[in-house]
Design brief:
alpha/beta; nine-stranded mixed β-sheet
């Protein structure tokens, strides 16, 4: 077994309010539990981590944490061992949620995902076989710009020779978008910790910017891989159409 295929821990960010999706489903107003084609988003993410070769998942909870934890423990019957990390400051930016997982990782490389993304098997297989740069991280990116459902909402990235040169939602000059999936080392945690210490808050993009500045950030093209962010009712409808209409590219 190569280093890149060794079992990893997956980290899932599931602490936020998810206010843009609240109330769209009768079943729940909690975003991680919102069903997409009959399966809650967070369960889908756990299944994707299995595909990526993970043996364990650290789920960072915050808003609605008791309900999320109870529902997932009750409904998930897969092989991953589950650890719940609490982000008490879930009103802050998402980098704080990433840092909440750090005590549970023991400095090991990890796969970082969001609870509100539907991820195809091809994408997760790429993550499974990828080794991140030393003390750095790799962001999986999608160059299929014509397939992006809501480009205004997407985080744009400009990549040259496999390295990100710029990242941001308002970026004008870009050639791919951020899929929200990372293969990372503790170097990302170090970067986020430094930002948090300085500002009392940290966005994941702040950590990425620090690693970019130090030459420790790479990108990985997902090729034909499928993913869909589920932030709004419209995105939810689109994800369901893709999944239920068999419009997802052959995995």
């Amino acid at each position: 077994m190569s280093n890149s295929d060794s079992p990893r821990t997956g980290v899932i960010l599931a602490a936020g309010f998810g206010s843009r999706l609240a109330g769209t489903q009768d079943a729940t107003d909690l975003k991680p539990l919102t069903p997409v084609a009959g399966t809650p988003l967070l369960i889908r993410t756990l299944n994707s981590l299995e595909t990526a070769g993970c043996t364990r998942a650290v789920i960072v909870v915050g808003y609605g944490m008791e309900t999320v934890q109870e529902e997932i423990q009750d409904r998930y019957d897969g092989p991953l061992s589950l650890t719940f990390a609490v982000n008490e400051h879930y009103d802050l930016q998402n980098g704080v949620s990433v840092l909440a997982a750090r005590p549970h990782l023991n400095g090991s490389p990890f796969l970082l995902t969001m609870a509100d993304h539907v991820l195809g098997d091809t994408l997760m297989e790429k993550a499974r076989h990828h080794q991140p740069p030393e003390r750095g991280a790799t962001l999986l990116v999608d160059h299929k710009l014509d397939s992006i459902f809501d480009m205004d909402d997407a985080t744009k990235v400009r990549v040259e020779d496999g390295r990100p040169q710029a990242i941001g939602k308002q970026l004008d000059d870009y050639n791919c978008v951020d899929t929200g999936v990372f293969v990372a080392t503790d170097g990302l945690m170090e970067a986020l910790s430094a930002v948090y210490a300085a500002k009392g808050d940290a966005a994941l993009s702040d950590g990425i910017q620090r690693l970019m500045g130090e030459g420790r950030m790479q990108t990985l093209d997902i090729g034909s891989g499928f993913w869909q962010d589920v932030d709004t009712p419209e995105m939810l409808d689109h994800a369901e159409e893709m999944l239920m209409g068999d419009l997802v590219p052959a995995e």
